[in-house]
Design goal:
Subcellular location: Cytoplasm
Order of helices and strands: HEEEHEEHEHEHEHEHEHHHHHEEE
Oligomer: single chain
Number of helices: 12
Protein name: Exodeoxyribonuclease 7 large subunit
Distance between the termini: 222 Å
Radius of gyration: 72 Å
CATH architecture of the largest domain: 3-Layer(aba) Sandwich
EC number: 3.1.11.6
GO molecular function: exodeoxyribonuclease VII activity; nucleic acid binding
Function: Bidirectionally degrades single-stranded DNA into large acid-insoluble oligonucleotides, which are then degraded further into small acid-soluble oligonucleotides.
Structural class: alpha/beta
Number of strands: 13
Strand content: 15-25%
CATH superfamily of the largest domain: Response regulator
CATH class of the largest domain: Alpha Beta
């Protein structure tokens, strides 16, 4: 069979080919780490980054979208050696093989990160991070030691905040390098020096503040050195660590008694709010003023009451003088009374002696005899009067029960010839003679 001039073949469009290639790359290389130098860096207005990573003999195109590059903590520049975590992909429109970079860090940060984790685990196992060993900060520090660069932004931020919040805090700066080869040794030496001066009594410090401004992991590495960590742990003074920005963490932060997110925040943390304290003091001043006025008013009232009770010394002297006069008069009267009593006693004794003479006795007996005679006469007279009164009473009683007394009241007594009293008219007979006696006189009559 002769060959067909247009045999049927399985053909792919360019789009299909690129799409299959893209799927193949993304399916077999989900995520890789690569290291290289940045070149051809482009930052369009969309916020996405486009660049190449190269080494001595090859290069690969890269894309880092805005959602990923916004999370980077260092400044990316062309010519910079970096390590990138990326996914392999293919840009279908041009068929370009490329890397979609998800994360990037300066070359060497990977090694630094491993060293950081290793030292962190070591010191944590030794107990340098334990909360039990951490010291509390004083509420109102009077003097602080600041271990940082004397020319950096950190010290300016610290001094600005302290001057605004509580300018009376005394600040002693121990200038050190905060990055570079000898920075860690200088920082540790400064911390030890501040403690030594405090312990020797040469300088008084309430705490130590150490830190610096933000930077890359390499820039902050001095605060990840073991010598700095041990100096902080061995410090007798409380240590506040303020290294980098809020997202930066160093070994010094874990060991320090307090970690502040920034140097400015550290200054805020260790210093009281002067304005707030002033407002409190003003409130206390007003309260104290009111209390003092109330106390003064109470004391004034009490003083007035005491003054009303307090007498002038002249008045008290007059009172004592009057009292002395009174006592003198009582003494004279007592002496006079005593003399009079003694005189009366002598007179009584004389009278009693006079009463014991025979003539006096006879006179007394005569007087007693005359008194008895008079008493006898009075007694006889009284007896006679009593007998007369009794006789009179008996006569009155006899008269009261006598028939004659009844006749005096208008009644009459009827009797027969024999003198028997007739009390019943039925006892009479016709022609019988009866005698009727009146109070005055009698009448004889016949019953008809």
């Amino acid at each position: 069979m002769p060959n067909s001039p247009n045999p049927k073949r399985d053909t792919l469009s360019i789009s299909q080919l690129n799409r299959q290639a893209k799927r193949l790359l993304e399916g077999n290389f989900p995520s890789v780490w690569v290291e290289g130098e940045i070149s051809n860096l482009s930052r369009p207005s969309s916020g996405h980054w486009y660049f190449s990573l190269k080494d001595n003999s090859a290069q690969v195109r890269c894309a880092m979208f805005r959602s990923s590059n916004a999370r980077l903590r260092f400044q990316v520049e062309a010519g910079q050696q970096v390590m990138a975590r990326a996914k392999l992909s293919l840009y279908e429109a041009r068929g370009d093989y490329q890397l979609i970079v998800e994360h990037m860090e300066p070359a060497g940060d990977g090694a630094l990160a491993k060293a950081f984790e290793a030292l962190k685990n070591k010191l944590q196992a030794e107990g340098l991070f334990d909360n039990d060993s951490k010291q509390a900060l004083p509420e109102q520090p009077k003097s602080i030691a600041v271990v940082t660069s004397a020319t950096g932004a950190a010290i300016r931020d610290i001094l600005t905040v302290l001057a605004r919040r509580f300018p009376s805090i005394k600040v002693t700066i121990f200038p050190t390098a905060v990055q570079g080869q000898n920075a860690a040794q200088e920082i540790a030496r400064a911390i030890n020096t501040a403690n030594g001066l405090h312990e020797a009594g040469k300088r008084e410090f309430d705490l130590i503040l150490t830190g610096r401004g933000g930077g890359s992991m390499e820039d902050l590495w001095a605060f990840n050195e073991e010598v700095v960590a041990r100096a902080i742990y061995q410090s007798g003074l409380p240590v506040v660590s303020a290294v980098g920005h809020e997202v930066d963490f160093t070994i010094a932060d874990f060991v320090a008694d307090i970690r502040a997110p920034t140097p400015s925040a550290a200054a805020e943390l260790i210093s009281p709010d002067g304005q707030e304290m002033m407002a409190s003091f003003m409130g206390f001043e007003q309260l104290l003023t009111r209390q003092m006025l109330l106390t003064l008013d109470n004391n004034k009232q009490q003083l007035g009451w005491l003054q009303s009770r307090l007498r002038h010394p002249g008045s008290r002297l007059q009172e004592h003088s009057q009292r002395l006069d009174e006592l003198e008069m009582r003494l004279l009267n007592g002496w006079k009374n005593q003399s009079h009593q003694q005189k009366l006693g002598l007179q009584l004794l004389g009278s009693r002696l006079q009463q014991q003479t025979p003539g006096h006795k006879i006179q007394q007996l005569k007087l007693a005899s005359a008194g008895l005679y008079q008493r006898l006469e009075k007694q006889v007279q009284r007896l006679l009067e009593q007998q007369q009164q009794r006789l009179k009473n008996s006569m009155q009683l006899l008269d009261a029960v006598s028939p004659l007394a009844t006749l005096d009241r208008g009644y009459a007594i009827v009797s027969d010839d024999e003198g028997q009293v007739i009390t019943d008219a039925g006892d009479l007979s016709q022609g019988q003679t009866i005698t009727t006696r009146f109070a005055k006189g009698t009448v004889k009559s016949k019953v008809s």
